[in-house]
Amino acid sequence: RILILDFGSQYTQLIARAVREANVYCEIIPYSKPFEIDSNLKGIILSGSPFSVNDLNAPVIGIKDIVKQLPVLGICYGAQLTAKTYGGRVEKSSKREYGRASMSVNDDTDVLMQGVSTKSQVWMSHGDSILELPEGFKVLATTESIPVAAFRNKQDTNPLYGLQFHPEVYHSTEGKQILKNFLVNICGCAQDWTPAHFITDTVAALKQQIGDRQVIMALSGGVDSTVAATLIHKAIGDNLHGIFVDNGVLRKNEFEDVLETYKQLGLNVTGVNASQMFYNELKDNADPESKRKIIGRLFIEVFQQEAAKLENIELLGQGTIYPDVIESVSVHGPSVTIKSHHNVGGLPATMRMELVEPLRYLFKDEVRKVGRELGIPANLIDRHPFPGPGLAIRILGEVTEEKVRLLQEADHIYTNALKETGLYATVWQAGTILLPVKSVGVMGDERTYEFTVALRAVTSVDGMTADWAHLPYDFLADVSNEIINNVRGINRVVYDISSKPPATIEWE
Ligand code: XMP
C-alpha cells in the first residue's frame, strides 16, 4: 500500500489512478490527517498544490520524520517542499513553465530513471522553481528552463525523490515508467492489485462483515450498483435482496432487459413496476427541480414499501465509489472539507442501516475492470451514464406517458445507430431531448404540426466539463431520417452543438 498525501492539487486523483494502473493499491488522504505506519505501507507520495512553498499559510508536513521510516516521492509542490525542508532554495523563477517540456536525464544509473530515455517529454505546471538543491542532494534530470527537474537525497537514509513535473499525466510520456520504478524497485510493492485479487479479497471481507444477515439494495441498471450487487451476491447469495424500480422514465425496454440481465447473473432481484404512480405525480409539473424532487421522493417511498415486505433486513448495500468519498483539501486555505455524497437514486439518511459498500475504494475504470472479471455483460459495463430522474429531465416541461413513449422511440433509434456504427464507445454520453415546441412540416402532400427532438452527444472525462461530439454528418442525416419516418409525432430533428460550460450536458 502507498499513501498519497494530498496538498490540494487538481491532479491528485490522477496520481492515484496511475499508481493503481501499476497494480499497486494506494489511498489518498489530506496532508494534515495523521496516519499509521504499518508493515503494509511501503511508501509515501506527496502531491502538488495550488500553494507556493513560500506562502505564509503554505501547508507543511514533517518530511524528515517520514523518511526515517519510508521512501518518499514528492511531485511538484511535494518536490519543492522537500527541497525547502532540507535547506534548498525555491523561488518564483523568471521562467514559469506550463505544459510541455523536454527533460534530459543526467544520471541514468539511479533506480528511479531506469529504462527512461535520455530525452523525453514531461508535463510541467509550476510558477516556483528549485534553484538550489540542499547539500548532498543530487540532480537526476533537467529541462531547458529549469536546473532541477528530478532529484534525490543522499544515500544514507530511505530514498527521498522529487519530481518538478507531473509523471501522472498522459503527456509525460515516460511518467508511468518513473512511477513504476519508484513503486516496485524503490518501495518494493508487489504489483498484485488486480481485479481478480480484489474480488477474492472483497468477497472474503464481505462474508466477514455480513455473516448470515440480510442485505437490501436498490439497483439502477447502472455499472456501479450492478458490480456492487454481484460482489455481495458472490459473498452471501440470496441473502442479498435487490430492488429495481420502473419509474416510467427509463429507456425503451430497459426495465425488461435489465431484469433479464440480473436474472442471468443469478441475482435475487424484485422488479417493481411503479410507472403509473410516477406519471400521476409528475402531471402538471413543468419545473426541472420539482420533477427531480418528485422522482426522488417516490423512489424512496417505493423502496421502503418493498423493504417493509421483507423480514430481518439489517444492512443496506450501496454502489458508492472512491471519488464520492475522498476527503478533498480546500484550495482556499488548508482547511479540510468532506465532499457531499451524490448517490444516484439516493436513499434517505432516515434509513439508518449499516452500509455495505464494496466499491468504496475503486475508481470508475476499476469498477468496470472488476465487472468484466465478474462476467457482467459488456453492454451493461460500457453503458453511458444515465441520470437518476431518467427521461423526465429530457422531456422539457410537463412529462406525460405519451411524451415518454415518443422520446423512448426516438432515443432507441439514436442509441441503436450509435451502437451499430461503433460511435457509442467514442462518446462519453448521448441522449435525446424532447422539446416543448411544435413546428410545421410536410410529409407527402400533408401538412404536419409535430414535436422536435434534439440529439445530444458529448465527449468528457468526468462530466464536469464536456465538448459536443463531432459526429459525422452522414450519421446524423441517417438518424434524423429514421426518427422522422418512424416516430409519428416528431417531424424535426436538431443536433446540440453546445459545450459545458457554458451549457450543461442535460437540458434541464
Ligand atoms: P449536467 O447536465 O449537470 O450533467 O451537465 C452532468 C452529468 O450528471 C447527470 N445528471 C444527473 N444524474 N441525477 C443524476 O443522477 C440528476 O438529477 C442529474 N442531472 C444530471 C447527467 O446525465 C450527466 O451525466
UniProtKB/TrEMBL annotation:
Its EC number is 6.3.5.2. GO terms for molecular function: GMP synthase (glutamine-hydrolyzing) activity. It catalyses: XMP + L-glutamine + ATP + H2O = GMP + L-glutamate + AMP + diphosphate + 2 H(+). Pathway: Purine metabolism; GMP biosynthesis; GMP from XMP (L-Gln route): step 1/1. Signal peptide: none annotated. ATP binds at S220, G221, G222, V223, D224, S225, T226. The active site is at C76, H166, E168. The keyword Secreted does not apply. Gene3D superfamilies: 3.30.300.10, 3.40.50.880, HUPs. Pfam families: GATase (PF00117), GMP_synt_C (PF00958), NAD_synthase (PF02540). It comes from the Bacteria. InterPro entries: Class_I_gatase-like, GATASE, GMP_synth_C, GMP_synth_GATase, GMP_synthase, GMPS_ATP_PPase_dom, NAD/GMP_synthase, Rossmann-like_a/b/a_fold. Keywords: ATP-binding, Glutamine amidotransferase, GMP biosynthesis, Ligase, Nucleotide-binding, Purine biosynthesis. Residues 193-383 form the GMPS ATP-PPase domain. HAMAP family: GMP_synthase. Homodimer. Catalyzes the synthesis of GMP from XMP. This is GMP synthase [glutamine-hydrolyzing].
